[in-house]
């Protein structure tokens, strides 16, 4: 399978807040024609570093794409550096120069002298015309490497890539495609997921398997390549089916849907409605459910019963229950779920109460203790959790577990 | 000036949609202590490529930080690769192993065998304790390089960097200091903020001024360097005072506090309490208020009145009001704020109703129309907004505006 590296050039890309969106675009485009991106580099406008980066990439990888550094100013160094590394002296390309002059003339402007720099190309480089800007792209090919220089402005880069690069790269990569699938799981730590599936996926080099953990979630990514999409998809399906089988109901999505979207789809499919009474999550369960466009079809009401008084007044938790067992208990969670369900007349009611921290923990109920209940038409499920981590993580994991319990209940409808 | 490179490890970072937020965080932190980032690399989980990347970075640059690839699975290769490149064989660190065992034991789980891998360290590496997760960071230092291995999950990376790396790196970077200050503003678009303050900040090259816009918020960042912290701080204070003066009450924080934290501080200072009745924000206002540790001191109750029925039943909005003017109106917002305030007996009540989209807009009330009311002891403020952007952005900007109205009301107490 053909591989590529992307080198983004520009000191501004090394500041804290810049985002290299070009490399995301290129990765997607390259993957779609069966070329895998194996490394990405961001280099500033310093010749020495960029030289290092280009040389390293050419040593490792057949296709090297640079973005940026093709402008008309002193600190646009990509042409010069690539010329040095490939040992192709810069020469003036008359066609490019005339094109630049015409471009400025058509706007009634004399071409600034600086722009002539954009007509310098490494000997033997093939210009890639840029209808959207002044800097043409460049295509340099020898026995071992294809080096492609693209301008940094996204609109220019995209138009050159689509018109000039994609067709040539398709011819190079031959009939190969890369397809991806993700299995999103919840309820198991990353190491446990891996213990389950490593014996399966390690039998395959194609598809490649990668695990990615977030709080309350482990995503299993598969990437398969094949001569045709059908061939690659078949490989994905074979391994995918085995992984899904092994992980069972822990898998909540086989695409990039979030848990709240999956729950929303179930609610619509089962014609069910939902209401929530939550304490330690402070509105997060309701907020996640209502992130989904169209959630008014199934979500009616959320109660954030943060104070004990509001648990009593709003949901009708018996005051004695809160006084005796404390607000964090199985009984309060069940009562929250059943009361909000009854009060709002929904198919499902959710109750969450716990200790999110950092304060408020005790020996009995340390920070991270969370009780979650989900009430349905026939019965109420309850689970107690002890979540690790910060307040934010405890709250997030609680919301994830609550939504997952709803998903599992709906699956039985 | 000391320089650093960042190498992000993980095949998922080479897929089209991933974002390497860790490198942004690290760049910001490194800049703040006078260390410049000169190159960034993203490498997959392939030993050969990562070896190339680590070797290249160590050749070029004194400080090399890797993120990710320290997990317990087969494809977590950072430890192994760094051990190869630095020629420091992997050895089992008993302290780390025992820490891992304790961590699992405290959650009542037997440690999966795989996790023992996380106790392997290159000979002579200094473990950096990770209170937020299982993988410790590692610090390897020889004559020419400092190589720092950090785990990929952002919360873990941040906690290790702040506790362990920042103090050590400050000692290495020596007496040149870079200090930063941020003025967080809300209620003005980025271009308006810039129009106001560009005539001021453009008179200074030190501090450097950068504007950063997020939905509902524009942050003005100042960075000053000096021989001593006092010298740099004096430079910051001079420009900072002029900027704050110009932007007035739009500035809600002069540090990295979020709006909900600022509102929380005001509520405590003014001994006030708050409750919320929200519709289009779906719980986001309550969720943000309760993100703050200790928010139970002032937050009592949130009502997410998503359906019209729940607006009527729960808050007592007159049914005629919803039928006549629709649920998105000044009257409903005011009624939500005043009713929840009265019902819950809090100092302040907040009401939010609007059209978050993508559907539900009309010519009269296009997507982004949001009415917000804040009821206090003496009066109720109302504002109507038309927020641009996606559902997520409309909801976020609504929550920001609601919290800002609370902040401004509390300032008059």
Oligomeric category: homodimer
Evaluate the radius of gyration of chain A: 29 Å
Helix content of chain A: 40-55%
- H/E element string of chain A? EHEHEHEHEEEEHEHEEHEHEHEHHHEEEH
The whole-number mean of residue pLDDT values of chain A reads 92
User: How does the overall form of chain A come out from the CA principal axes?
Assistant: elongated
Number of E strands of chain A: 17
Name the CATH superfamily assignment of the largest domain in chain A. Answer: MoaB/Mog-like domain
Low-confidence stretches of chain A: none
Q: How much of the sequence of chain A is in beta strands?
A: 15-25%
Number of domains of chain A: 3
Main sheet strand line-up of chain A: 2-1-3-8-7-6
Largest interface in this structure: A-B, 87 and 83 residues
CATH class of the largest domain in chain A: Alpha Beta
Query: And the CATH topology of the largest domain in chain A?
Result: Molybdenum Cofactor Biosythetic Enzyme, Chain A
Largest sheet of chain A: 6 strands, mixed
Structural class based on helices, strands and sheet pairing of chain A: alpha/beta
Helix count of chain A, per DSSP?
13
What's the architecture of the largest domain in chain A, going by CATH?
3-Layer(aba) Sandwich
Calculate the terminal CA-CA distance of chain A, rounded to whole Å.
46 Å
Write a structural description:
- The structure is a homodimer of 413-residue chains.
- The first copy, chain A, has 413 residues and is α/β, with parallel strands linked by helices.
- The first copy, chain A, is built from 13 helices and 17 strands.
- Chain A has helices at 21-32, 47-60, 78-86, 94-106, 154-173, 190-201, 229-247, 259-269, 284-291, 308-315, 319-325, 330-344, 391-411; strands at 3-9, 36-43, 63-67, 90-92, 120-122, 126-128, 137-141, 146-150, 177-185, 208-214, 217-226, 251-253, 274-278, 299-305, 348-354, 369-375, 380-386.
- In chain A, the strands form 4 sheets. Chain A has a 6-stranded mixed β-sheet, sandwiched between helices. Chain A has a 5-stranded mixed β-sheet with strand order 14-13-15-16-17.
- In chain A, a hairpin with a 2-residue loop joins strand 10 and strand 11.
- The longest helix of chain A is centred in the last third of the chain and has 21 residues, at 391-411.
- The relative contact order of chain A is 0.08.
- Strand 14 of chain A pairs antiparallel with strand 14 (299-305) of chain B.
